[in-house]
Target: Transcriptional regulator, LytR family protein
Amino acid sequence: MVGWILAIVLVLGLSLTLWADAQLNRMEAVPEQRVANTAGTNWLLVGSDSRQGMSEEDAARLGTGGDIGVGRTDTIMLLHIPTGGQARLVSLPRDSYVTIPGYGDDKINAAFTYGGPQLLTATVEQATGLRIDHYAEIGMGGLSNVVDAIGGVELCPAEPINDPLAQLDIQAGCQEMDGPTALGYVRTRATPLGDLDRVDRQREFFAALIDEATAPNTLFNPFQFFPLVGNTANSFTVGESDHVWNLARVGLAMRGGVQTETVPVGGFADYAVGNVVLWDLAGAQALWDTMR
Model:
């Protein structure tokens, strides 16, 4: 009897995995020109501000504004999973001034607008010298849906934030946030350091999301687990060769603890493309060297 139960559980688990994998949206993210292979496993994690697929009601509810076509990248993070030791999550500010292959120097998020995941991946590889092994992207509506599927996430703003543009009005201190509130929290720039504060909040959110999604009360609660799997699969765009079990590896790696940081910033400047973030080149190079 026990054997039959285990067999049924195994078949159901395999079927769910294959179903979820089939729901993932896929795009070519591997650039034609690659840097040499580097140590560990590197993910390029992208939060797109695309409104594609959202209804007017959803856009109004989430405070995202109208459709902007192919979208831009509100969030760019590099997750490094070493062969041993703690994972590292590094934010690349979207206004970072880098060289985009074929387009010259520009803000890093312009690479996504010019050439989608492939060009963004090529740009990050060239800027960091690190080989990107996997790609995952989630849009605004998808992020909100995933948060709501697990019943919200706990986030801890250090100060009150009131940003009508992001439909956000929260107090300081740890609190449970639903999908629309969490989306506003990671999008707002209405704090003293603007985008630099925002990348800190984005890492905080991502770590909290993974922590809640992989918690036993989520994994063993069918009323949360199945909506989570369905919403996550439908909400993510991954590389052509990426699978749901690769995403599960991200959750396991971060569940064991993750070191978070922003690429060292040397200052700001005004160029033809607007106000940009300048990396501390020596500090950034030292950071990438620790991940090779």
Observations:
- The radius of gyration is 19 Å.
- Residues 161 and 224 are 29 Å apart (CA to CA).
